[in-house]
Amino acid sequence: MRSSWDVETTSTVVALRTLARRAHAMVKEARELQKAIVAIIRTWRPDLLEEFGVGPIVAATVLCAWSHPGRIHSEAAFAMLAGVAPIPANSGQVTTRYRLNRYGDRQLNNALHTVVQSRIQYQQATRDYVARRTAEGKTGREIKRCLARYVARDLYRLLESEATAA
Fold first, then answer.
1. Range of 38's domain?
2. What pLDDT digit, counting tens, does each position of 30-39 carry?
3. What percent of the chain has pLDDT over 70?
4. Which of 59, 131, 143, 154 is most buried, by the most CB atoms less than 10 A from its CB?
5. Same structural domain, 55 and 89
């Protein structure tokens, strides 16, 4: 610190340095915890980490929601739990529009959203799908809802198929 600083500036610098030390300590702790999570997932379900867009936090969230084989009886039930099941949004006899489900496990929904966002950004097949559905007149929300449903279906099948084989 400089002797020419007034009391307010000195106090501000001390507070900012303290916050910076805390932030560094928290980042270090988060890295250690993430390594522990990765170790647990690798021993229990390493196949989850091989899925595109699924990292250790997403895999842990999915495993916590899925819990064990047989808990969730179908992929539709898993999608409903995740809040990505399509809900009809039309009045009348013909349903052509669906909306996002606002219920379910919000952490699982957020994890699926993370997978969808990473696939949209980094996976060419998903980008092609988005372009095709956009050309069909679908909105971004509708496309993401469909993608989240596909991701939920894939993850459920992966979890259940591996569980029945083991």
1. 1-44
2. 999 999 999 9
3. 94
4. 59
5. yes
Q: What count of residues does the chain have?
A: 166
Are 3 and 76 found together in one domain?
Answer: no
| CA distances (Å), origin 127, targets 58, 116, 134, 138 | 21, 11, 10, 14
Q: Which of 145, 154, 71 is nearest to 109 (CA)?
A: 145
For residue 141, the number of C-alpha atoms closer than 13 Å in the C-beta half-sphere is 7
Q: Based on the domain organization, do 95 and 81 belong to the same domain?
A: yes
- 83-129: per-residue pLDDT in tens? 888 877 777 776 677 776 778 889 999 999 999 999 999 999 999 99
Q: By the 8 A CB rule, do 149 and 121 touch?
A: no
Count Cβ atoms within 10 A of the Cβ of residue 110 and give its class: 0-12 exposed, 13-18 middle, 19 or more buried: middle
Give CA separation, 32 vs 42, 73, 129, in Å: 15, 35, 37
- Judge if 39 and 51 occupy the same domain: no
Give the total number of structural domains in the chain.
Answer: 2
